Amino acid sequence: MIYPWLEDRWQQLIEQVDAGILPHALLITGSAGLGKLSLAKALGIYLQCHQPVDKQACGSCKSCLLHQVGTHPDYKVLTLEEGSRQIKIDAVRQVSDFVLKKSQQGGYKIVIIDPAVAMNENASNALLKSLEEPGESTVIILLGVSSQQVLPTIRSRCQLLQIRDISFEQGEQWLAPQVGGLERAKYLLAVAKGQPTLALELDQSPKLQLREQILAELTQLLEGQTDLVVVAQKWAKAELGEVVGWLLDWYIDLAKWTATGGYTAMADCQVLYRLLALRLNPQKLHQQVDKLTKLKAVITKGASPNKQLLLEGVLADLSH
């Protein structure tokens, strides 16, 4: 899928393909939720299509049919394995072997690495040879938030394609027909921090339901309508990383809300922020943001703390 805000980048790539000047390595960067992976996949499918129509893959040739069932032999997406934070050197070596082999379908070989920042230094160095001496008709596409996240040796061997952030208005126009109206689109986009594809994923998702539950119960706790042990017990049934993530989002927003007169919180957060502001002065708020940031990092690394006790500790900081 080519999202409306990516049309100019898509046309740029197609013009390079038509002119025979598409580079063998691309580094596509931009904020999360803008469709970088969709753009990379669309380019790979287009390059491997046997009979493109109107600057799009035809969807019916043998290559397109192989893509539809996920079995194209000349197409490889390298990403994080479940529970891992790094793309390891062995996986990159497999990519190196892949690009040296002859195309089984007689066309392009495509490699997509997402996110490129997940490659450690050894893995990045292992990729260099493939970037310097790619196989015939090979395109390697790396994805990331910023080009500065990858090693200079990697960056210098890729053509940079930057995806610009879009306005909330653009996101709302695209999202509204898919979620039942403009008001719902505005709400979802605000929760997703302006990331339209994430906003669509959140619609009717358990993550959004969890956010609304945490918001309601935290507000009740601060109003003295419930007990922190009861709240912690409920939250401990959810994914700890998601609970901490929502709390961290609100604390960071609260810092903006208290520091700037022009910042307007989401309507459903304003009562919560007023209650939190009574308990957290700027210094304490900074400490809480730092604490939750470190906690989120620990959870991401795969640690399994006692959720009940940990959440009681987080909530206890608000009881003073």
TrEMBL record:
Pfam families of this UniProt entry?
DNA_pol3_delta2, DNApol3-delta_C
EC supergroup of this enzyme = transferase
Protein origin, superkingdom = Bacteria
InterPro entries, from UniProt?
A: DNA_pol_HolB, DNA_pol_III_delta_C, DNA_Rep/Repair_Clamp_Loader, P-loop_NTPase
Which terms in the Gene Ontology molecular function aspect does this entry carry?
DNA-directed DNA polymerase activity
Give its E.C. classification number.
Answer: 2.7.7.7
- List UniProt keywords, sorted A-Z: DNA replication, DNA-directed DNA polymerase, Nucleotidyltransferase, Transferase
Keyword Metal-binding assigned to the entry: answer is no
> Reaction catalysed by this chain?
DNA(n) + a 2'-deoxyribonucleoside 5'-triphosphate = DNA(n+1) + diphosphate
Question: What residue stretches are annotated with the DNA polymerase III delta subunit C-terminal domain?
Answer: 207-319
SUPFAM superfamilies of this UniProt entry? P-loop containing nucleoside triphosphate hydrolases (SSF52540)
Q: What NCBIfam families has UniProt attached to this entry?
A: holB, PRK05707.1
Write down what this protein is called. DNA polymerase III subunit delta'
Q: Which organism is it from?
A: Sinobacterium norvegicum
The gene name on file is: holB
